[in-house]
Amino acid sequence: MLPAIGIQHWIAPKHGAAGNTVRYSRTPRMKKKVLYIVSNVVDSTEYDYLVQHWDRTRFDLEFLLLNPVIDCGMQRNIRAAGYACTTLLYTGRGQGINITRTIMRYLRATRPDIVNTNLLEATFYGLIAAWLTGIGKRVYTRHHSTHNHKYHPVKGVFYDRIANRLAHRIIAITRSVEDILVNWEKVPKEKVVLIYHGYDMSAPHRPDAEKMARLKTKYGLDTSKRSPIIGIISRPFEWKGLDHSIPAFAELLREHPNAYALFFNWKSSPHIERYEAMLAALPAGSWQTIGFDPEVIEFFHVFDVFIHVPEDQHAEAFGLVYAESTMAGVPCVFTRSGIMHDLDANALHGVKTVPFKDKEAILARTREWLNDPPSVQQRADFASRNAAYLHGVIDITLKMEALYKLYGSL
Predict the structure, then answer these.
(1) What is the layout of strands, in order, in the sheet containing 84-89?
(2) pLDDT exceeding 90 applies to what percent of the chain?
(3) Local structure of 203: helix, strand or coil
């Protein structure tokens, strides 16, 4: 039994209340057990889909979360799907040695066959713990691209190289990530497996009038007084292309003085002061910043144009908003980064692509959409065609089969 200090006990999902413990049998299993270790995630469509589509007849599945809160929506969803999920209380890197030891004790107690780590702390501590205990084949999913090369070229890249050495396999979520691993970091190509994030692409995302009305009220948005509405969903990091999209919107205001820009996922970052200064220079009442909202997808139906223009091919590791926006049918202006670089731009409808770091092109393509806006029916047609195309590229069923093939090979 593991100590209860700083840890939520191993919970059998069907037993319910926190504090019920499970004694794991050490008798041989008929199926391999996969343990996902994830850090600093409290809500996630990715892992919700994973547990919804997991095939219990092939592999057992369990989760270990490293989080600053002992309970979260992600954990509740995993348990509701019938899988064990344990949270280790983790609030900072000062706990590094202790959290690694605790993970080692957890691994010895639960004895997974395969450990798949996700995100920085889970990957660093989880791979070290798995290596030291000698339990399980080690896999990590690379969720970032060049971030450490750009902003943490010494320590960050060092952590990446340790993870690359300790892992038996590395999941690259796009070809851009694969390129960084193989060509920049010299990981042997046979160690890297390309598996796109998977999402339910079975149908386009239809507008929900009730949800949209509630969200408009929540954020005080009156579309009868402000038009057109420009949407940007980007954390305030420079690699997101805000140095070009904000000035493009400033120019657009000269032609459309009632235009309004909504900036979602706005939260503290090393670059936030620069972008807030740029926004403050815009006319009062022409923009609004909003933090993370899990229902942001509903706003795609409010936007007249959605802009997502990361600064280079590798800036996005994946870029879920590319898929979400095209599935909603909103007119889009994109650069080709992350998953968008892997997609056939000609197969997507309602999308105009622009060169990287090109304010004038962003403005020109946005102006084109506003001068000849698609009808409601045309937007619905964009959504249907895009859903059909993406279904064959990043549908969740494709991801699951690729994961089963990987885990079965270890």
Answers:
(1) 84-89, 59-67, 32-39, 114-118, 137-142, 169-172, 192-194
(2) 82
(3) coil
Which of 209, 156, 213, 204 lies closest to 180 in space, CA to CA? 156
Instruction: Check if 13-200+395-409 and 209-393 are the same fold.
Output: yes
What contacts 24+ positions apart, CB below 8 Å, involve 12-21?
12/84, 13/78, 13/79, 13/80, 13/81, 13/82, 13/83, 13/84, 13/85, 14/82, 18/71
Domain boundaries defined on the chain: 13-200+395-409, 209-393
Q: In the predicted model, what is the mean pLDDT of residues 137-162?
A: 95
What is the arithmetic mean of pLDDT over 119-127?
Answer: 97
The answer to whether residue 181 scores a pLDDT higher than 90 is yes
Cβ–Cβ under 8 Å, residues 128 and 100 = yes
Task: Enter the CATH code of domain 13-200+395-409.
Answer: 3.40.50.2000
- CATH 3.40.50.2000, domain 209-393, yes or no: yes
Location of structure tokens 């802009």: 307
